[in-house]
Each structure stands twice: as structure tokens, then as C-alpha cells.
Amino acid sequence: xxxxxxxxxxxxxxxxxxxxxxxxxxxxxxxxxxxxxxxxxxxxxxxxxxxxxxxxxxxxxxxxxxxxxxxxxxxxxxxxxxxxxxxxxxxxxxxxxxxxxxxxxxxxxxxxxxxxxxxxxxxxxxxxxxxxxxxxxxxxxxxxxxxxxxxxxxxxxxxxxxxxxxxxxxxxxxxxxxxxxxxxxxxxxxxxxxxxxxxxxxxxxxxxxxxxxxxxxxxxxxxxxxxxxxxxxxxxxxxxxxxxxxxxxxxxxxxxxxxxxxxxxxxxxxxxxxxxxxxxxxxxxxxxxxxxxxxxxxxxxxxxxxxxxxxxxxxxxxxxxxxxxxxxxxxxxxxxxxxxxxxxxxxxxxxxxxxxxxxxxxxxxxxxxxxxxxxxxxxxxxxxxxxxxxxxxxxxxxxxxxxxxxxxxxxxxxx
Length: 415
Ligand SMILES: C[S@@+](CC[C@H](N)C(=O)[O-])C[C@H]1O[C@@H](n2cnc3c(N)ncnc32)[C@H](O)[C@@H]1O
Prior knowledge:
- The protein is an alpha/beta fold.
- It is built from 7 helices and 21 strands.
- The strands form 4 sheets. Strands 6-20-21-19-18-15-16-17 form an 8-stranded mixed β-sheet, sandwiched between helices.
- Helix 1 packs parallel to helix 7 and helix 6 packs across helix 7.
């Protein structure tokens, strides 16, 4: 029987769950409690009850506090407020421990793997927990005022600044203006310029009441921004993909190289290559006697990648959707396959197609540990072994965590 929304319950809080809450139990049901920490006893207000096996709640009063609890640095953090952050109330080191616990739990549950021997913790990136976001999409309400969405809500928390943003993004002048007719206003900073993008409602209708993808248009600043990695300049469409944390691409590239150990003259397949950041790093590693083929579905990103890699003659970019057929049809025999898919992961069929190419190693950059664990499970079912796993706090204050993993055949060929 669903509880009334706003009912307040008292619970002991347990382990963190994927998504930025902690697990508690109340009258035989699971409660996902936000704004709480493991080991705490809290009064929690129910925010969602669909009558199923679990409910959602916000901790509104802490009866027994965790030693990891800190005052949130942002005045907009807290129950019913901005939904952009999940762990403002946890110390920096506790945030990383929470994320490490989630990665362990996802691998145990979804891959059937104990990764204790591989994962030593979640690694911090330079710069601290605030002032790191180079891209923020502020939501715009019907009144035209910008802010940030509340958790699992279309309601907007008005903000005068977002402390997660870098200068010019977190305190962007767009926050002081009105944007009638827009659904969002996005601010993104490159090496030496900042662009503002308008989000307008897209055409058509989507299933289950979801909004169609926004139409995005550059309002101010360059349409293409410069980014830098290992001394190389990359030009990327302002609405195109580049890691949001300024130190992320470099950290992931270094972890990937350490994992897959490219050798001079090898052939590499770089799936979901975006504007070519990892492709360039891999190309440097295999050198001109090697070959790196990037695959990317976005027309703009593939064209940016081709231009960014123009001076590396042993690289090539194919514009294609990565799926089992396109991977099988590439006509190359890579020594190394690297993949950096969107949140949904690659999926069982794509993993099977990658492994059928019989590379010596597969390097995987993952923004969702659940999708990674499922894909690792698919690889394990096909006889592959998870040989390395690192995790990075590339999104401090939020529940997001990036992983870099690598897989090798369980039995080496010819053994
Ligand atoms: C996480 S980004 C990785 C980009 C790049 N590796 C980097 O580090 O900058 C994922 C990329 O996959 C692309 N993408 C999404 N789905 C795809 C698909 N099915 N096939 C090919 N590319 C896809 C997106 O356009 C995006 O550029």
C-alpha cells in the first residue's frame, strides 16, 4: 500500500546505492534516502512511493550524524532543493569512498565479480571538489528564469551561481537574464573562449511523456571551441563532447595507456571516438608504423575528429553507428580495441563483435559503472577476464564516477 507522500519515517541508514542515495529499510521495504550517509539515523520524508518494493525519501533531520558529514558548501544543496549534486554533505574523502563502494557493489551484483584485488579506491583529480565544471546547462522555466532542476523534478531551483562551475560558467552572466521560450541555456568554456547555447523544445513526441531532444543553437561565442591535451589543440563543436572536468581527459588517457600498453606498429580500434582525443593519444603511442581507426556516429564529431587528426596520417575516422554489424564489417584486425561509449554502455552484441576481432586487449572508459559491469559480464561469458580497473572522481559532489578498465582473453591464444 503506497504511503502518503510527505510521510516522515525514522530509519537507520546503510550502504550507498548507485545514484546518490543510501539504502535503508522500513516495514519490509527498501528506502532510498538522499541527503543521508551510511551509519546515520535520520528522519526522512517520503518523496516517491509507487507501491512497489522500494520508496524514495529525503533525510530532513539527522538524529545520529556520520563523522563524514560536513556542511554543504552550496546554499542550494539540501532536501527539495537543487538536484545537480548528491554528496555535498559528505567530506571529499568520504565522497570517494561512497563511490568506490558503489563500484564494488555494481560489479558484485551485475558482473558477479569481487573487484577488491583490482580497485584500490577512487582517485581524485587535481583542483578540489568545486570550480571544475566547464559545461553547465541551466534549466529555464516557463517564466524564462534560469536555474537548476530539483531532483527527479521539472521544478527549477533559482540559483545566482553554481559553485561547481569554473569561472565564467558557474557564475555566468546568463543567470542574471531572462530566456523566454527556451528550455535551457548552456554555457561551455574552451581553452580561451566561452560559448552560450540555447536549448529549445525539439519537434515531435517521445514515448512515455519524455521530451524530444532539444534543438541547440549557439547564441554567443564561437561555434567551435579549442581544447588542449598533451600539448595538442582540438577544435570541438561547442555542443559536442569533451570531458567536463578540465583534468579528466588527461587522467583517463594516461590510465588507458597504462592499461593497454600500446606498442610501436600496432593497430588500434577506437570506438565512440568523439572529436579524437583518445585517438590522438593512441596514435602517438603506436607511431607512424601503426594504425588507429576511430569510429563515431555524430556527423559533427566525426568531422571534428578528422580535422583534429589531420596531421597524423596513420589515423582514420569512420562515421558510423557502433553496432555488432558495423564492428564486424570494419575489415581490420586490431591488436587493441578501446571503447568509450555513452552511459548505456556497449551492450552484449557489440561486446561480442569486439571480442570476435580477437584483439590482445580491450580498454574500456566508462561513465556508468553499472553499464561497465554488465559489459564486463558479457565479456566474461565469452571467455574474457577483467585484468584492471581504476576509478576517478571526475564529477565531485555528484554520484557520478568514471572507470577505466581493461580486459584480456582468459586463456591466451595458442595456450
Ligand atoms: C563518452 S563520448 C567519448 C568521446 C571521446 N572518446 C573522448 O574522450 O572525447 C561518447 C561518444 O560516442 C558517440 N556515440 C554515441 N553513440 C554512438 C554509437 N552508437 N556509435 C558511435 N558513436 C556513438 C557520441 O557522439 C560521443 O562522441
